[in-house]
Design goal:
41% of the residues lie in helices and 14% in strands. It contains seven helices and seven strands; from the N terminus they run H-H-H-E-E-E-H-E-H-E-H-E-H-E. It has a five-stranded mixed sheet. Helix 6 links the parallel strand 5 and strand 6. It is elongated, with a radius of gyration of 20 Å. Bound molecules: zinc ion.
Length: 198
């Protein structure tokens, strides 16, 4: 005998497959959703579908954006010769919040992780190398200080240094394995200022 309706079970399964949502949270959310007024459920479903349909990668830095080129890449005054490499758009947002960085970014959308089968070809490394064929002075590697982040930084460094590009790594002080987005702005500013050449 099924405890809940089949529809509830399906909803719980979908929610539980999202990152950071366990089975208990999924159940709580599912019951909350079916109890919500119809118009709020419609609105939620609509914004999810709109976001999925309209959001795309910036053709320069690959961050998530609504336009062909994101607001940061198209902003006059940003130094296009200084590129900070981050793992995802949330990390970009964390650095952007410091207000101290005037270069542009490159979003990898992941990190090299042989353990779960993510190789260099699965993230935006080739696209970074292509960007660096143009006039680039420095690439700051701001991947996480996890094993995957360090592996990715080393891999990219080996590709870019022979091209004559200055490659730097953000200073330690960013907690090991810490997600960049949870680190305060002062710590991020210091990590950026204290970057060292590889
Ligand atoms: Zn961009």
């Amino acid at each position: 005998m099924e405890l809940y309706s089949g529809y509830i079970n399906k909803l719980v399964d979908e929610l539980a497959s999202l990152p950071g949502i366990g089975n208990k949270s999924a159940q709580r959310l599912a019951f909350h959703l079916v109890g919500m007024p119809q118009e709020r459920v419609d609105r939620l479903a609509k914004v999810m579908m709109e976001a999925k349909a309209k959001v795309r990668y910036c053709k320069k830095c690959f961050t998530l954006t609504d336009s062909e080129v994101c607001p940061i890449c198209s902003k006059p005054g940003r130094n296009q010769k200084l590129i900070m490499v981050v793992e995802n758009s949330r990390d970009l947002a964390a650095y952007e919040k410091t207000g101290k960085y005037e270069g542009v970014y490159h979003v990898l959308h992941g990190a090299i992780s042989p353990m779960i089968g993510i190789g260099p070809g699965d993230i935006k490394i080739k696209e970074l190398v292509e960007r660096c064929a143009e006039d680039v002075e420095e690439v700051i590697l701001a991947t996480n200080s996890s094993l995957e982040g360090e592996t990715t930084a080393m891999y990219i460094s080996k590709l870019l240094k022979p091209m004559g590009i200055k490659v730097t790594r953000i200073a330690s002080g960013v907690p090991v394995g810490g997600d960049l987005e949870y680190i305060d702005e002062v710590t991020l500013s210091r990590a950026l200022d204290g970057r060292v050449e590889l």
